[in-house]
Design a protein that fits this description.
Number of domains: 1
Structural class: alpha+beta
Number of helices: 3
Helix content: 25-40%
Order of helices and strands: EHEEEEEHEH
Strand content: 25-35%
Largest sheet: 7 strands, antiparallel
Shape: globular
Distance between the termini: 28 Å
Length: about 140
């Protein structure tokens, strides 16, 4: 994995590239350290599931009582519908989560949210809001 701001073109479909570009522009910092000593980082890796190619954003928060926590969001073009699909998985990761980790407990059509073909801004807005709300929730609990 690498920081979101350092990621580049690597062969994922155009919709995943566009959503990633939207997220890079809207989420902001790769790593933030708060006054209370907690910090979080946002990293990106590839989601590779046969014809479903996209990205995974993983957020890890450190400095909380009980150890680090994390959550990941994968987004990709669904192979059967061409819609943009989003799935999430709880857990702190240091490397890109595998398809098996991301799909744990799901069937192949079980997603958190789907967006029609080309709805880049809506998909990116949803993922951005989910990530920022999760960070806020974890840091205020």
């Amino acid at each position: 994995m690498t920081y979101l701001s350092h990621y580049h073109d690597d062969g994922a479909c155009w919709q995943a590239h566009a959503v990633l570009a939207y997220l890079r522009a809207t989420i902001g910092d790769d790593k933030v350290t708060n006054e209370d000593g907690t910090d979080y980082s946002i990293r990106v890796g590839r989601y590779e599931n046969g014809r479903e190619q996209g990205y995974v954003l993983s957020v890890n928060i450190f400095g909380l009582m009980g150890g680090p926590i994390g959550k990941s969001w994968a987004f990709y073009e669904h192979r059967n519908s061409d819609q943009i699909s989003v799935i999430s998985h709880e857990g702190c990761v240091l490397d890109t989560p595998s398809v098996e980790q991301m799909m744990e407990g799901r069937g192949k059509y079980d997603t958190d949210k789907d967006f029609p073909y080309g709805e880049i801004v809506h998909a990116g807005g949803y993922i951005s809001a989910e990530i920022l709300a999760w960070i806020d929730e974890m840091l205020t609990d």
